[in-house]
Recover the amino acids of this structure.
């Protein structure tokens, strides 16, 4: 008597195929999630932006410029102030960032700064309501949700930079 193994072989192929497909789907889901986290990290926490903010803050800490900005009428009225808006350096309370070693112009040419804003920690939603580009609004909403439970900081310095096709963002919290 001859045994018929054709049905067993078919069942074996179906089971092995199911295991392989399930493994590949799980692997794809993991790699896709990692890619999304990497993409968010490279856009929202770009190291070049951190260095740019650090250089700007070092400049603002010299000669008490930051306190002059935070005590200016413009900041006290709105609880935010744009130091750079639409790639244009501002003049805040007599502190012209385009002068004095050309810090604003040099950083603007190096990083292509679009917007640089100092905002009160709890007033991010005020800046979201302004007439700014949608990607910057998305980043501000991300920050508002990300920092919603942390009130140990008073201000955020938020930077948007890069060319129009590839905008990057960074922030620095101030006490």
């Amino acid at each position: 008597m001859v045994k018929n193994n054709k049905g067993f072989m078919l069942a074996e192929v179906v089971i092995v195929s199911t295991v392989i497909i399930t493994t590949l789907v799980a692997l794809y889901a993991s790699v896709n999630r990692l890619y999304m986290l990497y993409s968010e990290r490279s856009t929202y926490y770009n190291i070049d932006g951190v260095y740019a903010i650090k250089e700007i803050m070092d400049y603002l800490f010299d000669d008490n410029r930051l306190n002059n900005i935070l005590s200016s009428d413009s900041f006290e009225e709105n609880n935010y102030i744009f130091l750079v808006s639409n790639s244009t350096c501002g003049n805040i309370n007599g502190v012209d960032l385009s002068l004095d070693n050309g810090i604003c112009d040099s950083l603007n040419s190096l990083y292509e700064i679009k917007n640089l804003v100092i905002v009160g920690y709890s007033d991010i939603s005020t800046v979201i309501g302004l007439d700014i580009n949608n990607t910057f609004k998305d980043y501000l909403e991300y920050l508002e949700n990300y920092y919603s439970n942390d009130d140990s900081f008073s201000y955020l310095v938020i930077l948007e930079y890069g060319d129009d096709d590839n905008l990057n963002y960074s922030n620095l919290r101030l006490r």
